[in-house]
Amino acid sequence: MAVRVYLLDDHEIVRRGLAELLSTSGRCEVVGESGSAAEAIRRIPAARPDVAILDGRLPDGTGMEVCRAVRSVDENIRCLILTSYDDDEALLAAILAGASGYVLKQVRGADLVETIERVAAGESLLKGEDADRIRARLTGEDVMLRPELAALTDQEKRVLDLITQGFTNRQIAGRLHLAEKTVKNYITSLLSKLGLESRTQAAVLMERLRHPHD
């Protein structure tokens, strides 16, 4: 059976090119597409694709935010982040969002189709040594004693630690036996105390605190 794919990119010509490439391969079926993060968050769960290909940067958000939102509704939907940047920050953001991998926009068509099939089969492309290295940087509790985090309550620190491990709000709520709305409130509070705007910024801060001389 063909892999059901949803496309998110704010450039129509990119979406058309991807749709044609995937359709002509005979191995993928495009079941929907969007040009904005807000539209994608609404439409992807209803379309129920096997794999959603999400542009990393959008006018109204990021592919990572869409991935997190979609997977909080349906964890069976696999996500691939499409990015122009091959660096630790892109990898980190993909891990935190719960994506199965990230693909550079320079990827060859045949390689993209193969990657989609691997992800649809349940394989994570973020299990290699690069992902392990990033995950290793995000583990450990000693950093929680750093003065930069002194303003956080113990519960906020627990939430922050789970954020840096890539858990969704729903998963954090389950682990800490809290309501999902309560988790959202904790996240809003800890980001405000740290002067940050997003989960990714919080994770990058934690990485820098753990490895100040890298």
Automatic annotation (TrEMBL):
Sites of 4-aspartylphosphate modification: D55
CDD domains per record: LuxR_C_like, REC_NarL-like
Keyword set includes DNA-binding: yes
Keywords: DNA-binding, Phosphoprotein, Transcription, Transcription regulation
A Pfam family it matches: Response_reg
Domain Response regulatory: 4-120
InterPro entries: CheY-like_superfamily, NreC/VraR/RcsB-like_REC, Sig_transdc_resp-reg_C-effctor, Sig_transdc_resp-reg_receiver, Tscrpt_reg_LuxR_C, WalR-like
Gene3D superfamilies hit by this protein: 3.40.50.2300
HTH luxR-type domain boundaries: 145-210
PANTHER family in UniProt: TRANSCRIPTIONAL REGULATORY PROTEIN NARL-RELATED, TWO-COMPONENT RESPONSE REGULATOR
Name used for this protein in its record: Response regulator transcription factor
Gene source species: Dermacoccus barathri
